[in-house]
Structure formats: C-alpha cells, structure tokens
C-alpha cells in the first residue's frame, strides 16, 4: 500500500484513540533515499523527474510506503467468535531524493528547505497511516460474531471493516496531496522556490 507525492506532485490525520488503547506498540519508521544529480535547482528537479520512484503512472518526488501485518487472537466462545486481541506490526518507509554530489552553498540552502518541506509532507502521510492502524484496532478488537464457532464469519466482517478504513485513509491522502500541490499549496511553493532559486 502506498501514499505518494507525485511529480506535478500528488493523509489527513484521522482521530487517534485514547493513549491506553495503542500504547502497546510503536511503528518502525525508516528513511531510504534515491540518488539525483545537478548543481542548480532546475537540474535537481529535472533529475527527480528522471530518477524518482515509479508510483503508477508517474514518477514521484518522494513517497511513503508501509507494510502492515497483524497477530490476531480469535477465540470461539459459546458458539460465537471473538477477536480477543490484535497486535499490529507496522513498518513505514519514507523514500526521499538525495543529491549524489555536494551542492554550491546557496543551492544547498535552497535544497535543505525543499527537502525539509517534502519530508514534513511525507510525515503527515505516515501519521495518517498510524492513525488508520489505531482505528482498525478500535473497530475490530472485541468484535464478536454470533453463531461462528469456526471463526469464519468474523473474517468476512473484518475484511469489510478494514477495507472501509483503508479506503478512507487513501481518500484523505489523495485530498491532502491535492491541496498541497494545488495553486498556492505548500508543495507547489517548495517546488517553485527550488526551481526559481537558482
């Protein structure tokens, strides 16, 4: 599952549960980079367009990818099935551009501002993913399905709930990117400052 900033660019935070509900786990967050070249803002941005990660139909400046797995304890109780616990393992990977050679001092300053802004954007996607996982916990732990001694019906209901939450997160992510990349949006400003700054 991916969230990304598209080149021409492309997660609204979901409410968190009370701290006690999700204090038992923490996501693993990693940063990976891809190499770009250039000694000016336009050259660096052009290299991003040539070397950025492929995310569907376009290259991206940066993107947030995650891997989510669960350890779940389903228990049959008096003919019903109960999801007693669900422990997520969430790994979020932020992929960002990195110049392959030192930059002239003025360009370096512009680059640092650009990269900090792009990184902050991706962190919003990361926070949104974490909140989605917490919402999954709230929507599923304790779920009880009657007349389900083999715990098969509960899995159908789980799939439905997870799909709805995942779709909501993706839609929020797309909307966040649309605003950020739209006219006067934060990412649009960052791109223009990089390209026009030298």
Got a strand count? 6
Radius of gyration: 21 Å
How does the major sheet shape up? 6 strands, mixed
Ends: how far apart? 36 Å
* Individual helix count: 5
**Average pLDDT reading:** 88
- Which ranges are low-confidence, i.e. pLDDT below 50, for 5 or more consecutive residues? 1-22
Structural class: alpha+beta
From N to C, what is the helix and strand string?
EHEHEEEHEHH
Share of residues in strands? 25-35%
Short overview:
The protein is built from five helices and six strands; from the N terminus they run E-H-E-H-E-E-E-H-E-H-H. It has 198 residues and is of the alpha+beta class.
Q: What would your notes on this structure say?
A:
- The model is unreliable at 1-22 (pLDDT under 50).
- The chain has helices at residues 19-22, 41-51, 105-140, 153-181, 186-196, and strands at residues 2-6, 28-36, 54-55, 58-77, 80-99, 144-145.
- The chain is built from five helices and six strands; from the N terminus they run βαβαβββαβαα.
- Strands 1, 2, 3, 4, 5 and 6 form a six-stranded mixed sheet that branches.
- α3 packs antiparallel against α5.
- The two termini are 36 Å apart.
- The chain is an alpha+beta fold and 198 residues long.
- The chain is elongated.
